[in-house]
Structure formats: structure tokens, C-alpha cells
Amino acid sequence: MNSVLQMTVNGRPRADVVADNMLLVDYLREVCGLTGTKIGCDGGECGACTILADGGARLSCLTLAHSCAGQVIETVEGQATRGELSAVQSSFHEKLGSQCGYCTPGMIMTSESLLRTNTNPTEDEIREALGGNICRCTGYIKIIESVQAAAEIINASREAAE
After folding, report:
1. pLDDT tens across 94-109, in order?
2. C-alpha span between 66 and 156 (Å, rounded)
3. Structural domains in the chain plus CATH codes
């Protein structure tokens, strides 16, 4: 059965007719054309499909699209503002936080969620937050350094604004 799904995706209101059993990851990739959200394990174990739903990290491969009706969904494509990378995105680039890049969107979205609630996380807090995200290429050191660098950028921006 199909029904209308209404939500905001990366700041844009949407209303799409989709199957009631469509997964959020499939909705984002196939209906919205946002392919930055990756399908990794298809079972909620790798974190590659992580998005933000109303600001909180969520695995889109385990989430029915209709369960997010009315919510604000953010993907990695929505993190840049006016063509400029977010603090997290630029830090992953500058600190070499990705290698093959497959896990990177999920890592970025999980890191974004963490830094919205904790702008000065310890290394242990970063490791705990990223515990559900698997990277098969790195030893996670550069990823952790990327999150720490993003936190520094965010904190410097806040101090400059005050």
C-alpha cells in the first residue's frame, strides 16, 4: 500500500507518495536522489546509513520512512551551507578522516549529532559515540582527530560570536 509521506529533508519540505514499507535509506536514495547516505550492512551494524532525524542520529536502514513523517531529516548533503563544508565535513577532509570514503557520511552524521550536544567531547566520548560506525580502512585515529578538530572549529566560532 502507498501513502503520502510528508517531512523536511535538508531544509526542504517534501510530500511524496511512497510504499508504507519503504525504508528511510531507500526513500532518501531513490525518491530524494540523496545518495550520500550509504547502504552498508543492511542490518544496522555498520553505521554507513546514519542520518539525523529531528537532530538525533538514526540508522536509516532500520527505519521505515513513514515512521519519520513530520520530522526534520538531515543527510550528509545537507550539512554544507551556501557551498561551504560544515566544520565536521571540512575537518574530515583536512585531517584525512576518510580513506575509501564509504563510511564517511555515517561518521560525519554521527559526529555532527555528538557535537551538537557536546562541543568539547573527550576522546573516550568520541569513541563511544562512533562505536556503532565501522570503518574497514583506518585505525580510527584520523577519524577521532577529525572530530576533535571539528570541535575546536565549533568552539572557536562560538567564542568569536560572543
Report:
1. 999 998 999 999 999 9
2. 39
3. 2-78 (3.10.20.30), 87-161 (1.10.150.120)
